[in-house]
Amino acid sequence: MIWEVFRQKKAGDYHTHCGNVHAPDRDMALLFAEVQHGRRMPTNSLWVVPKDEIGEVDTEDVAFGGTTDKSYRWAMTYNFEAAAEEVAASESEQSEAEQQRRSVVEGDD
């Protein structure tokens, strides 16, 4: 029987798949998993699951993320050229106003 092994590196981390072991029962699978997958790297815990008990849902079975159109969340058609022109004009006006203030303060007028 094939058993899939999931390893948790440290407490609080997710368990990640690290391989499998061949064993006749759960106790032997736990022992083999400890020897093959738990001693080579830092390990907090191991999960050992019969391969036949693992189910799968893929994109052919279900549309992940829902079917609602949420394209409005991404600004893909935003026209920034008009805004850039407005910013450039504003910077120009601010620069001219600053020059006028300096000339008044320095008494050039």
UniProtKB/TrEMBL annotation:
Composition bias, Basic and acidic residues: 98-109
One Pfam family named in its UniProt record: PaaB
InterPro entries in alphabetical order: PaaB (IPR009359), PaaB_sf (IPR038693)
Protein name: Putative enzyme of phenylacetate metabolism
Domain of life: Archaea
Disordered as annotated region, ranges: 87-109
Signal peptide coordinates: none
